[in-house]
Amino acid sequence: MPLLSDPAAVAGLVTREVRTGSRDGAPTRIAVARRRYPTDQADLWDALTDIDRIPRWFLPVSGDLRVGGRYQLEGNANGVVEHCDAPERFAVTWEMGPQISWVTVTLTPIEDGTELELRHEAPVAPEFWDQYGPGAVGVGWDLALVGLGLHLSSGAPVDAAEALAFPTTPEGVTFVRTAALGWAEAAVGDGDEPAAANAAALRTVDFYTVVPEDGTES
């Protein structure tokens, strides 16, 4: 990922919110990320949904990207396309092994661009939430939204190796820390205890930025 001259400012482009919800009678927590992009709704929709364009800023994807179809992100989540109202909104399941959560993306035209809102709703796993808070998923989406912005600004693909290594660079550590603490602040806004939320954020920073002793990326 190209060098960010001000990684904290780029992390600040995202507005973060945490909500408490429920689905099928089970409690959930919802991480909401919003970012504005200086492109029109049609171009942003195409970047998010075109099977050939998604890998230019995110991950290679295969499958059927129509409603009812299954998709597979290379080395990552898979799921079902549940809703698609082009060019405004789509919703998918986000499945990692036995864990299922739900992602909804909404695009809203604004002056000089389009606002993207991403909602990731997941069942509450208290021990995992206590350890990492919303940053566990939130920071991952923050990094993806950076890649999307870089692609939209240049039209070129983001270098996958650079993107993978970015969180371990000095600029990446600053970005991840800023984002994780932003998610902690959002969790406190939803009722989490401040000290615990900030401690979880720092564990999230370590998760994303510390290179294992064997030298391989996590």
From TrEMBL:
Q: Supply the Pfam families for this chain.
A: AHSA1
Q: Which CDD domains match?
A: SRPBCC_CalC_Aha1-like_6
Which InterPro entries does the UniProt entry name for this protein? ASHA1/2-like_C, START-like_dom_sf
What Gene3D superfamilies does this protein's entry cite?
3.30.530.20
Q: Specify the domain of life of the species encoding this protein.
A: Bacteria
Activator of Hsp90 ATPase homologue 1/2-like C-terminal domain boundaries:
41-144
Family, per the entry? Answer: Belongs to the AHA1 family.
Q: What is this protein called?
A: Activator of HSP90 ATPase
| Provenance organism | Nocardia sputorum
